[in-house]
Design a protein that fits this description.
The structure is a homodimer of 356-residue chains. Chain A is 38% helix and 19% strand. Chain A is of the alpha+beta class and 356 residues long. Chain A folds into two domains: 268 residues, Ribosomal Protein S8, Chain: A, domain 1 (2-Layer Sandwich); 43 residues, 2-Layer Sandwich (Wheat Germ Agglutinin (Isolectin 2), domain 1). In chain A, a hairpin with a 2-residue loop joins strand 6 and strand 7. The longest helix of chain A is centred in the N-terminal third of the chain and has 19 residues. The radius of gyration of chain A is 20 Å and the shape is globular. Chain A starts with 5 loop residues before the first strand and ends in a 12-residue tail after the last helix. At the A-B interface, strand 4, strand 7, helix 7, helix 8 and helix 9 of A face strand 4, strand 7, helix 7, helix 8 and helix 9 of B.
Chain lengths: 356, 356
């Protein structure tokens, strides 16, 4: 374990996160929902979307762009669907509520769609997909965001890096769980190469002329992320924009606010979408069939030098087990960010760190 | 237009296709449904999935692996979903029926899911997504297939090249329409490079050791397609396998039959899945919002040397317009394939070709 990492137990990180949110005016229940999602995300090893983001949410709670006592509610609905207004509450609060509504619709009709408006950054999309899978449902979660990704042929950002996640019950295995963005790589990978002074593959970014570049130095001012697999990632971005933005009444593209860099007194108006399918009713054999499929993939011939084949989510579930046993080894950038979160929320972070 | 191409009007190609299917025992209505999908796909310029495939379907109709008078039907259902057994009828017949069932469910509850088993290759997934959009719905279509694509770290094929398509009503514009496979590129592109004796990008294939290769010569015997964007394409393949295979009771991975190379007397047992969302009920503003989004993308700054930015489906809709006016310019490989189809079905193809 690198000495730049700081180990903290899941419980302690969770309690810190709850306390920080409580100190910024969030009620106990909403603080617990939010902290558990952020902390589980860190325990999965997905540090870009865990408590590293807490700082940004706290600033918005202090600034008024997030409503500490906002209450998401259903504004229109039918037998299998609903549209939820997030009332500018935390994205984790609105999204957890929305997936619960989707599960209720799925119990009634077999599947449910819930679209969300007036939300904010919702952390890791996988958290809501996993929420559905915990109840035995297939879950899908997605969200829109400010433009940060080019389209094929564009010179700058056209769509958000719109996340898409799903989770599927898998019998004796932990759920299949994919959480991807439609960009070739996350901006964080470009920043990391920039800090190391290393070139990047020429497929990650385009420059100010819209042409491929292997230079991470100009990111993000003078270069833009590319869509994953070109027109495929761009096409998926627009499907997500359709279900999370256009269908929900949420803001879209340039009308969305930046949850991190934008004025913290103004709501971001993010959109999101959640789908759930009732496995027990539609296809009760599904978990056993997915279990066999995973076994088959695990047993497939491996490339030279590869020890093991993974299915989506497997590394995250193993990280969670390890985090439960050994605590979470937070990278330095995450520690720095949650130190700022502690300052914003008048929390004593050091009280929560355990000795490795 | 290359001299190796052969021009045929949409009507003539459609009538040839209807006649060929009729001659192999398919009823008038099913032949018309199938021919229209195959011919529209050619008119879109998606020649890999149009009447080029007719030959393979006719062989199966003659061989018994496809039932000329098969009748797809709902076997289980709930308010918002149904599972359809294709009864080994043509994939186009079963899929058109299944999407109609999904539209009916969506009219009742807001959204519908229909899973299909005992189907066969269904042509272009986009055809069924477009079917939904024509009725004002958001449509999604997907299918599984025999393994042809590696997973990250595997040495051979693990999943199908599982297609995924969607279509979205777009106001004054033609629908947004994406039709993608989860492979980096279609096998057809590798064959084309092989025929030209040219190397390919090292991202398209892995060799027998599971390592990247730029040599198309060993495909497909000793090399395998890679998943688009690595773990993202692989993850999407498993989502499609979940909804089109595991949930429907269809065959999966190695249990699926090869519609083209397999024994034509044995059914392939492909699975498919269809989703529809009722725009008019859930979000009546959607077409206008998508129209604006498309206008915004069209007006975005372009890379140096790029004349125009496209949205998904735009090239296909323009090809359709051109095909209506000037006929379809069939590539030589398609002409060769439909000549074989004519032989199998005792049709006189030359009668249908017009003078360019």
């Amino acid at each position: 374990m690198s000495s730049s990492r700081q180990v903290i137990s899941i419980d302690n990180l969770n309690e810190f996160s709850v306390g920080a949110l409580r100190n910024c005016g969030v009620g106990e229940a909403d603080a617990r929902v939010t902290a558990e999602i952020l902390t589980t995300t860190d325990a999965w090893g997905v540090f870009t979307h865990g408590n590293k983001a807490l700082r940004g949410y706290l600033r918005r709670l202090r600034g008024g762009g997030l409503a500490p006592h906002g209450t998401p509610s259903v504004v229109t609905e039918g037998p299998g669907w609903a549209l939820v207004d997030g009332d500018s509450s935390l994205g984790m609060v609105t999204s957890t509520y929305a997936m619960e509504v989707a599960l209720g619709k799925a119990r009634a009709t077999g599947l449910g769609y819930v679209g969300v408006r007036n939300s904010c950054h919702f952390g890791a999309a996988g958290a809501y997909a996993a929420q559905a899978a915990r109840s035995g449902f297939i879950g899908v979660a997605m969200a829109n965001d400010i433009p940060s990704v080019a389209s094929p042929g564009s010179r700058g950002a056209v769509t958000g890096s719109n996340p898409l996640a799903y989770a599927v019950p898998a019998g004796k295995h932990r759920p299949l769980m994919l959480d991807m963005s439609i960009a070739t790589v996350a901006g964080g990978k470009v920043y990391a190469a920039r800090e190391r002074g290393e070139p990047i593959p020429a497929t990650w970014l385009i420059n100010d002329h819209g042409q491929p570049t292997d230079d991470p130095q100009a990111y993000p001012e003078h270069s833009t992320l590319t869509p994953a697999a070109g027109h495929k990632g761009f096409g998926l971005a627009l499907l997500i924009e359709t279900l999370a933005g256009a269908l929900t009444g949420a803001a879209m593209t340039t009308q969305v606010g930046s949850w991190l860099a934008g004025d913290p007194s103004i709501a971001t108006h993010h959109g999101a979408a959640f789908l759930a399918l009732d496995v027990a009713v539609i296809g009760p054999d599904l978990p056993a069939r997915i279990e066999s499929l995973i076994d088959e993939i695990h047993a497939a011939p491996r490339a030279v030098g590869v020890d093991r084949l993974y299915v989506p989510g497997e590394k995250e579930w193993e990280n969670l087990e390890r985090s439960r046993k050994d605590g979470i080894a937070l990278p330095a950038d995450v520690v720095a960010s949650i130190r700022e979160a502690a300052t914003i929320s008048d929390m004593d972070l050091d009280r929560y760190f355990t000795t490795p």
